[in-house]
Amino acid sequence: MINHRPHILLLLLVSGLAAKPLLAQTSVKISADRTQILIGEQIRLTLEADIPENEAIGFFNPDSLAHFEIISKGKVDTSNTSKGTVLKGVITITSFDSGHWVIPRLLLRDSIYTDSIPVDVGYTPFDTQKPYNDIKEIVAAEKEKPETGLKWWYFAIAAVVLLVIGWLLFRRKPKPAPVAVKQDDPLTQAMRDLDALDAARMPKDLFYSGLVNVFRVYVQRRRGIESMQQTTGDLVQQLRVIGLPEADYDRLAAALQFSDLVKFARFDASTAEATDSQLVVRNNIRLIEELTAASLPVAVPDTKMGGA
User: With respect to CATH, is domain 186-295 assigned 1.20.120?
Assistant: First the structure.
């Protein structure tokens, strides 16, 4: 008699292995609501992690992104499924650097990364196709036709009124000539404005707005750099012609760009950060003053004058 018992045990073992499900793996996804923005506009990154029940729960927490500023990290939503847990959250970012950049792959843990996302950051395009509006010449208004049948005493009353007005005007004493007010030099005015700004104890957004305006007025008066109608990024680029040392230039650029974040309510600055930003601007104004003085021609006395 043939013994089939070993064959039956082998068949049951193979069937059990085939029926055992494969362990699920963690999957991640990322998407952006836009990939083309103007400087300062926001991008919403939606992150999702599908984690099976046999793995530890965790979510993305990036500290910084090259060429981008993290504005906020939204609340992470958690939902349980039959296979495990799904985590979903939104991170809001922006950029003040124009160009073509890439949001890098974000690490969840170990070697689990999201895809990267290319983003174009630019300025408001100038439409050269739009027609210019020509300046129109002054159009003379049509003269009203005089009414007929006016009585002569109308003119008599008008003449009397004109005589009275003329007498009142000419009898007034001449106004004293306005006294010319001497304007302070750019350095003195900038230092005085910074002191007043520090003493005002105003909200941080108004403080940083005033700080940048004081610096814009100074470089316009001292170096002729027009920037009142330009972005902070344009101002930073123009400052390179002054020739500041690289370390001082980097600190000044960072302070000016940080001011934009506070002005547009994207960052809540502390008192220490406000004091540091003002100190950076104050020190660079003094440094620009020194560089400007060093670049002026030195008056050489005329040796031909006088006796031998």
Answer: yes
